[in-house]
From TrEMBL:
UniProt catalytic activity: L-threonyl-[protein] + ATP = O-phospho-L-threonyl-[protein] + ADP + H(+)
The name this protein goes by in its record: Tyrosine kinase, non-receptor, 1
SMART domains the UniProt entry points to: TyrKc
Stored PROSITE patterns: PROTEIN_KINASE_ATP, PROTEIN_KINASE_DOM, PROTEIN_KINASE_TYR
Residue stretches of biased makeup (Polar residues): 595-624
Lineage: Eukaryota, Metazoa, Chordata, Craniata, Vertebrata
SUPFAM superfamilies in the record: Protein kinase-like (PK-like)
Domain Protein kinase: 112-385
Biased composition (Pro residues): 554-563
Primary location: cytoplasm
């Protein structure tokens, strides 16, 4: 069972001493829903629910700290009690009157003991640490040190202090809390430690093996944090999975306030200076076009963040430049539904992506919408094992992702195995009427994974190099992508932004007008179709290698607009390998010229020279006319064939022109049949299934290759697991014999 808002304080208190796994047992087993309920608890009660002696000691200390820090006394009466809980994180000199928190402490360098590196951002390195507070408490903290060369720059210092100023006024369960600053060199920002690191790293690492119900909980928590910012008239401007931090197994907090700005009472939006960098792929159209940011543009970003979460952090608008994204969005293209996203949540995401900012919901409305979009949880009545289906044991809890009365099979995630697949709807009984599942199943076991390490780590900024998804003069104005410096060496999005000129202008300048086709078709050295170049100075970003290696598994980037065939034709002439003569052999051929048509008639042969000449003239002009007609027809047919090739290439990601041409040839030039054949071949080459099975799977997924591939991957994982289970059972049976 998931955490509820009223006892979020309990979860956080337990998380502080790494005992959050006892949350359900303490809340439901010992009935503790308020801090003073601990007064009635004995050590034996803790022992009874499995808490060891040393853990009990830690817990009692945390309870004592909680009581003395004033958190419980400062509870503000509010409908939303979780928000009213003023969580001082055990900092004795910080938790004062609700809503008027004290300024963050000035922390001495000597009070900090720094440990392992957690990551690095634009300011510099972030390290884990312990803060030995003046009152003797030791707090786990995250310490952001400003790079020494940066702190000498006036702009950098100003930005650093701006982030500190913004952060120190924030106080919410789902917002990373600032504890204090160290003002000696190097400058440091000391914040609450989110033990799990960024959600981006976690989800990339876990890849499809994450409880989707927990993701729903996170969507609620992010909305709650953003609603708080909205109520304080702050615009975050950089909401993305990389900036959502995991404070405990079931608790996320929004971090990174480098781009945040406050709105005065008379303004409803903020127009950024055009030289500032912005994370294109997360931005609302009005931010891309006019640099306008508002609560509504934060809502758009929230939608993109949810999309990231439910795709396990794929890149939104992969491979498209800012201008291309804007072009697509203005033509009503939106990010596709992630296959694992519960249907109601996707409906909500689409509302966040309303083109007109006024049509988007507010965060206050979104918190209600998220609550209403909670996926249904059911238990199953009996074991269910069928190939290619979601395998279930009796009483398994399933998070339902897609359901309706008409469907005999629902899509769901088995909370025990975390596999996703179809299962018979008739097996499901709603959680409320199901017998209580055993405690081990009530909370899905999960661990907090360490962030993915590695040099070629994609950063969640839309590219391996964050600079590539943010405006940057080098990228957008030079007409060529150059690998940026390693992330560690990058100047901050606050500081370096001063040096990042014209990012926004770069998005806008030379933007094609609505309805205009943006650019020519480009092909790579293998003849594969590349997304269009919008303008000569627009640059394609390199793709995530994971996508490259799983080209047919991962979603293709949104379809580029229909290519300009004139360019295709010119390029084809320039680059013969793209359209080898033999490759068009499937096209209907012209009949060979009949000799009779080109030879003078017998009668003519016997006539006068004059007649002969006039006849010859007539036949020559006839010949010329015929030849012109043939050229015209040939040209038309060539264009038609190129059109078909383009159409199929757009529909099937990653195929070469030759493959498409051959498929068209085999299917009498029918593009739909060729498309299906190519998809079938791609799926077949990915799996061990028969072609017939692949065909069924594709039909089931309406020929969406990406969804079908995902389905197949999960299915083969499940099959492998089942096979090893069978093997184990066989071995133990043999041992018994
Ligand atoms: N409070 C925290 N607790 C745990 N880890 C943190 C915390 N703050 C930051 N980190 C880790 O350090 C990394 C860098 O954080 P930082 O906020 O400096 O940069 P960023 O947001 O990733 O990038 P940028 O500042 O360029 O937008 C994060 O990705 C995260 O993994």
């Amino acid at each position: 069972m998931l955490m509820d808002k009223d006892t979020q304080w309990l979860y956080q208190l337990l998380a502080e001493v790494q005992l959050e796994k006892f949350y359900t047992r303490i809340r439901d087993g010992l009935n503790i829903t308020r801090i003073d309920h601990f007064n009635y608890v004995k050590d034996a009660d803790f022992e009874y629910i499995g808490i060891s002696k040393p853990a009990q000691r830690r817990l009692w200390e945390a309870v004592k700290r909680y009581k003395t820090s004033g958190r419980s006394r400062n509870k503000v009466s509010s409908n939303r009690s979780a928000d009213a809980e003023h969580w001082a994180g055990g900092v004795p000199n910080m938790g004062v009157e609700a809503g008027t928190r004290a300024l963050p402490s000035l922390i001495q360098d000597s009070e900090l003991v720094l440990g392992e590196k957690l990551g690095s951002g634009s300011f510099g390195v972030v390290r884990k640490g312990d803060w030995y507070t003046p009152t003797g408490t030791v707090l786990p903290v995250a310490v952001k040190s400003l790079k020494s060369d940066m702190s000498r720059q006036a702009d950098t210092l100003k930005d650093f202090l701006q982030e500190v100023t913004v952060m120190q006024s924030l106080d919410h369960t789902n917002i990373i809390r600032l504890y204090g600053v160290v003002l000696t060199q190097p400058l440091k920002m000391v914040t609450e430690l989110a033990i799990g690191g960024s959600l981006y790293d976690i989800l990339r690492f876990r890849q499809y093996k994450y409880p989707l119900m927990r993701l729903w909980l996170f969507t609620a928590q992010i909305a709650a944090g953003m609603e708080y910012l909205e109520s304080r008239r702050y615009i975050h401007r950089d909401l993305a999975a990389r900036n959502v931090l995991l404070a405990a197994k079931e608790l996320v907090k929004i971090g990174d306030f480098g781009l945040m700005r406050g709105l005065s009472q008379d303004k409803d939006h903020y127009v950024m200076a055009s030289h500032r960098r912005i994370p294109f792929a997360w931005c609302a159209p009005e931010s891309l076009r006019t640099g306008s940011f508002s609560h509504a543009s934060d809502v758009w970003m929230y939608g993109v963040t949810l999309w990231e979460m439910f795709t396990f952090c794929e890149e939104p608008w992969c491979g498209l430049s800012g201008r291309e994204i804007l072009w697509h969005v203005e033509r009503d293209t939106r990010l596709e539904k992630p296959p694992d996203c519960p249907q109601e949540l996707f409906v909500m995401m689409k509302k966040c992506w309303a083109f007109n900012p006024a049509d988007r919901p507010s965060f206050a409305q979104l918190t209600t919408m998220v609550a209403e979009a909670k996926p249904m949880e059911v238990h199953v009545t009996r074991d269910f094992v069928e190939p290619r289906k979601l395998q279930l044991a009796a009483n398994d809890a399933v998070t339902v992702l897609q359901h309706s009365k008409e469907l005999v099979e629902w899509l769901g995630q088995n909370q025990r195995t975390l596999n996703v697949g179809l299962f018979p709807a008739m097996l499901a009984i709603p959680e409320s009427t199901a017998s209580n599942p055993p405690p081990s199943q009530a909370v899905t076991p999960a661990f907090i994974s360490p962030p993915v390490k590695g040099s070629l780590q994609h950063t969640g900024h839309g590219d391996f190099q964050p600079v590539n998804s943010w405006g940057s003069p080098a990228r957008l104005e030079d007409g060529g992508w150059r690998p940026g410096p390693a992330r560690e060496r990058e100047p901050t999005n606050l500081k370096k932004m001063a040096g990042m000129s014209r990012s926004l202008e770069s998005v806008l300048s030379g933007h094609p007008a609505r309805g205009q086709t943006p650019g020519a078709v480009r092909v790579d050295q293998h003849g594969r179709l590349l997304p269009p170049v919008m303008e000569s100075n627009s640059v394609m970003m390199p793709r995530d290698p994971r996508r490259m290696s799983e080209a047919s598994v991962n979603p293709p980037p949104p379809r580029p607009p229909l290519p300009n065939l004139k360019h295709l034709h010119i390029k084809a002439q320039k680059k013969p390998p793209m359209y080898p003569a033999s490759a068009t052999s499937w096209m209907p051929q012209f009949p060979a010229q009949k000799p009779a048509q080109t030879q003078p008639s017998q009668g003519a042969a016997t006539g006068s020279n004059l007649i002969k000449m006039s006849q010859m003239n007539r036949s020559t002009s006839q010949l010329n006319e015929d030849s012109r007609e043939r050229d015209r027809t040939r040209e038309q047919e060539k264009l038609q064939s190129q059109n078909l090739v383009t159409q199929v290439m757009e529909a099937v990601h990653g195929v070469t022109i030759e493959e498409v041409q051959s498929a068209l040839q085999r299917n009498d030039g029918n593009p739909l049949r060729a498309e299906k054949q190519l998809k079938l071949e791609q799926l077949y080459s990915l799996s061990l299934c028969s072609k017939e099975d692949c065909n069924k799977i594709l039909t089931l997924h309406q020929w969406n290759l990406q969804q079908a591939s995902r389905y197949l991957m999960r299915w083969s994982r499940e099959d492998r697991a089942a096979a090893s289970d069978r093997e184990r059972q066989q071995i133990s049976a043999e041992r018994r014999v």
